[in-house]
Amino acid sequence: MLHVPAEANYPIHPPPTRRRAPASHMTRPSRFASFFASRFVSLICATLFACAFASTAQATVSATDDTGATVTLAAPAQRVISLAPHVTELIYAAGGGAKLVGAVSYSDYPPAAKQVPRVGDNKALDLERIVALKPDLIVVWRHGNAQSQLERLRELHIALFFSEPHQLDDVALTLTRLGTLLGTSDTADAAATAYREDIARLRARYASRPPVSVFYQVWDQPLMTLNGTHMISDVITLCGGRNVFAKLEPLVPTVSTEAVLAANPEAIVTASAGATKPDAPLAKLDAWRAWPSVTAVARNNLFAIDGDLIDRPAPRIAQGAAQLCEDLEVARSRRPANAQ
């Protein structure tokens, strides 16, 4: 308070007081501060929610299998079991080899696959072993595994992805789908691209060549072949060949020797382990020499393809296709001059 001497003899008034704003009203600076603070908090909350949502969305993975079913996992698979040799090859090619905890017999490629614990074969699975391995994904051969055992796995609520490629292009598609479920899309997509390029080169070189009629012998006793919906028939077409039994049913039909003689194929082809050269000696092909009137026999167009390369619908089928294309080119070269 201002001190004034008494002798000044003039009235003393207290200093004027500043009127305070009611508590419910803020000054302009306070109002702006509150506004920006609330906006900042809202932004932080929205960001955290978006991050949480994105994290959840990224964790969940889905892919469509060869039955048309959508397989969804809460997160990329970490423990995987393969129920067919070709599936094992696909998983390794897709970058998921380290996640394999079980595989069936004859899963022998790449070499590392031989060390994966066995869970039976394609016909008889060791269900107890499979359950004990605690897989979060099992990749199944649709028509190669016992349906009753697959149903048992369904009852245990284990995710099943069915693999049944029918066309050459299906191999690349399966690679990308497995890459999604395994969380290895970069590796899988690169493998799919390389495979597509290999097939495209073969198609460009051979598909339009003069056609060669082909009998593909799956088995000799009983005599069995394959129809036009089988992937090997797609390989024959890729190489400029024509499957003489393409229209038969079922997928792998039994045929008679007389039917083969009537079809008179220009080439007879079969699969055999380790067969890598044209004219490879093979007893089940040599048996056809009893019918020298057949064009394939008369021109010695009896070819064996490495079974691991041609029978498995996996990336290495591109190598088997290359071998078959070369064999059919040999058959073309053996045509009489007036038949070229």
Task: Provide structural commentary.
InterPro entries: ABC_Transporter_SBP, ABC_transptr_periplasmic_BD, Vit_B12_bind_prot. It comes from Paraburkholderia phenazinium. The protein is an alpha/beta fold and 340 residues long. The chain has 2 domains: 63-198, Nitrogenase molybdenum iron protein domain (Rossmann fold, 3-Layer(aba) Sandwich); 207-335, Nitrogenase molybdenum iron protein domain (Rossmann fold, 3-Layer(aba) Sandwich), CATH 3.40.50. The protein has helices at residues 28-59, 85-93, 127-132, 147-155, 168-182, 185-206, 231-238, 257-263, 283-286, 295-298, 307-310, 317-333; strands at 61-64, 70-73, 80-82, 100-103, 137-141, 160-163, 212-217, 219-220, 223-224, 241-243, 267-272, 302-306. It is elongated and about 65 Å long.
Task: Describe the structure in brief.
With 340 residues, the protein is α/β, with parallel strands linked by helices. Helix content is 40%, strand content 14%. Helix 5 runs antiparallel to helix 6.
Low-confidence stretches: 1-26, 47-57
Structural class: alpha/beta
* CATH superfamily placement of the largest domain: Nitrogenase molybdenum iron protein domain
Tell me the series of helices and strands, N- to C-terminal: HEEEHEHEHEHHEEEHEHEHHEHH
Count of distinct structural domains? 2
Largest sheet data: 4 strands, parallel
Using the coordinates shown, work out and report the CATH topology of the largest domain.
Rossmann fold
Q: Which strand order does the major sheet show?
A: 4-3-5-6
What is the rounded distance between the termini? Answer: 124 Å
CATH top level class name of the largest domain: Alpha Beta
Query: What's the CATH architecture of the largest domain?
Result: 3-Layer(aba) Sandwich
Arithmetic mean pLDDT? 86
| Shape field | elongated
Number of helices: 12
Number of strands: 12
Strand percentage lies at: 5-15%
Radius of gyration: 36 Å
